[in-house]
Model the fold of this input.
Amino acid sequence: MGDIAQLAGRLKTLAQEKLELIQEFRLLSLKQEEILSGEDLAEWENLLEQKETLIRRIDGLDLQAGQLESEILDILGTGTLEDPLLLAEHLWQETLALRQTIRETIAEVRRIDEAVTNKVLVLREDLATKMHRLQREKMAVQAYGPKTSPAGGAFLDQKE
Done:
């Protein structure tokens, strides 16, 4: 049973590390939301790269935690780690609290990222509208050719 306590302690440590990474990910998402109102694309890309790095690190922690959980289940012989009796007996209550906090933080990150995604979609739609307008104006100017000045072409477009 000492092995289970040691494995459970390692599992708790991994959960703490995962929570720290997810909280860092949350902060990056909030920064992305702030940057969205500005036009700092380099910073936006930097934040995306940082988030991708965090995702890889979180995946690594999940893999390690999965291996530890398998080891614990092998020692126990039956059940799952979600079984309340096993959790109460072999895992610290702090680990349960960490897992709940992780779930809540992930839900918050999803809400933030959804808001960011919606803002990006609105900005993309605005940009597409502006691009379409510019293309129309360019075609109008080209249609008038050397016969009129661009200002004259714009005047004629407005009259039509």
Observations:
- Helices lie at 2-36, 41-76, 84-90, 93-144, 150-159.
- Residues 93-144 form the longest helix (52 residues).
- The radius of gyration is 27 Å.
